[in-house]
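In response to the reviewer comment on reproducibility (Comment 2.3), we provide here a single inverse folding case reported in full, input and output, so that an independent group could reproduce the run without further information from us. The structure tokens appear first.
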């Protein structure tokens, strides 16, 4: 019932909030005042970070470099001071380079690395944990490396300890910069669950409107002065077959009871107004005066009512927004599935109500897309910036929503090989039309086309259009 169109929208919305508030990760700055010991400690700290990036590049398994693809290392590698230190090591042929081969071999054979491979990608916390373990259990325990430390100018044991303290601070900074991703994932799940709940609020609406009309009919029958219409009302509306099938649905009743879904207790004025709008409509008049009716006509009546009256009612839209902040953008899509469900009740009442997701793949899609985007956002942003510059755009002045939409599109193209490229491109272009600036869709279309060509030339994108 919750399709990938809605999931993509939810992911982009959540990424927008997450990336906007994400704490920027930075390595430590030169300590002040710059005493000899502090200068030694800071040089050693940069050396260790450079060693870690070099070692990550040397640990290869079946053509892959899992530690080099690790998010913590990507963040370290992005720092200009680390890049400069590593370049200096290689230029000068530092002894570290020979030691790094030995350290890489130890890592490759270690239980902690093998454990990381089993859990890789399941939790971003693993990206940090493996490097904390490598640093403590392998790097700073390597005797050859420890001897190299002693050859550095201004060496002291306290300087080594200070370096370790800076490394622990770096690990903590990375953890805190990524710490609220679990909260973002939790909110994403809640948002999708609330979309599913909206589906049941809408399914219950014909029942509640009918209940209200039944109450009105009963009141009219008991008036002191009655008319013929009061005594012998047209009962076609209240005897509608779709409403009866909704009432008998065990699945609907179960959700309604569990989620405490009800319109009349708190929204009676709204339901009264909706019922009045329906009863004054040509749709209602044609239905009530038709020569005869059947299940098909009964279901089509409510489909027409929802299409032309209910789903466009501004008071209903405002009421739904008050019930959940997640429902601002859900009504169009969930409304479509509600209409489909009315049709399904006509054909097969026993299994008319749709499952939350089509299959397990769809149920995992949102979280996997969110994590893939966050994990690779630096690499994907670099791709965007590269082609933005080629087109003479100012990357610093891009609308942030455009950046988020494009990052997510790239993540989908590279991490979900079963989804055709055309589907991905079209979905995010349509999203840009709805959620960003007037020029955004053409901009995103052009940037994605350039990125796709580049990725295909590199052999990184193999699927067909």
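Designed residues, in position order:
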């Amino acid at each position: 019932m919750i399709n990938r169109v809605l999931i993509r929208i939810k992911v982009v919305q959540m990424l927008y909030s997450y990336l906007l508030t994400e704490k920027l990760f930075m390595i430590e700055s030169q300590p002040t005042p710059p005493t000899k010991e502090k200068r030694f400690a800071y040089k050693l700290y940069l050396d260790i970070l450079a060693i870690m990036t070099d070692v990550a590049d040397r640990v290869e398994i079946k053509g892959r470099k899992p530690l080099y693809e690790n998010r913590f290392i990507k963040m370290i590698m992005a720092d200009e001071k680390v890049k400069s230190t590593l370049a200096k090591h290689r230029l000068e042929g530092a002894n570290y380079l020979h030691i790094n081969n030995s350290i890489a071999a130890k890592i490759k054979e270690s239980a902690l690395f093998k454990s990381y491979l089993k859990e890789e990608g399941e939790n971003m916390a693993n990206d940090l944990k493996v490097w904390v373990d490598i640093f403590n259990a392998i790097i700073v325990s390597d005797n050859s490396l420890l001897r190299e430390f002693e050859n550095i100018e201004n060496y002291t044991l306290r300087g080594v300890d200070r370096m370790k303290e800076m490394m622990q601070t770096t690990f903590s900074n990375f953890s805190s910069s990524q710490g609220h991703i679990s909260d973002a994932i939790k909110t994403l799940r809640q948002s999708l669950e609330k979309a599913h709940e909206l589906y049941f609020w809408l399914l219950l609406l014909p029942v509640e409107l009918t209940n209200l009309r039944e109450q009105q009919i009963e009141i009219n029958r008991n008036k002191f002065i009655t008319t013929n219409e009061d005594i012998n009302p047209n009962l076609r509306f209240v005897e509608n077959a779709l409403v009866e099938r909704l009432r008998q649905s065990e699945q609907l009743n179960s959700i309604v009871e569990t989620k405490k879904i009800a319109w009349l207790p708190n929204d009676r004025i709204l339901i009264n107004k909706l019922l009045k709008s329906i009863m004054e409509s040509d749709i209602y008049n044609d239905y009530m005066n038709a020569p005869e009716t059947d299940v098909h006509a009964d279901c089509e009546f409510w489909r027409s009512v929802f299409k032309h009256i209910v789903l466009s009612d501004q008071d209903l839209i405002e009421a739904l927004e008050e019930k959940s902040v997640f429902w601002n953008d859900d009504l169009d899509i969930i409304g479509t599935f509600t209409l489909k469900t009315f049709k399904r009740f006509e054909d097969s009442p026993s299994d008319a109500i749709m499952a939350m997701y089509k299959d397990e793949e769809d149920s995992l899609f949102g979280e996997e897309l969110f994590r893939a985007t966050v994990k690779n956002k630096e690499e994907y942003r670099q791709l965007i910036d590269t082609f933005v510059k080629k087109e003479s755009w100012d990357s610093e002045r891009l609308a942030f929503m455009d950046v988020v939409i494009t990052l997510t599109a790239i993540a989908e193209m590279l991490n979900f090989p079963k989804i055709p490229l055309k589907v991905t491109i079209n979905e995010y272009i349509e999203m840009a039309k709805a959620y960003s600036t007037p020029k955004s869709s053409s901009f995103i279309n052009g940037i994605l086309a350039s990125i796709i060509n580049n990725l295909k030339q590199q052999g990184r994108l193999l699927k067909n259009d």
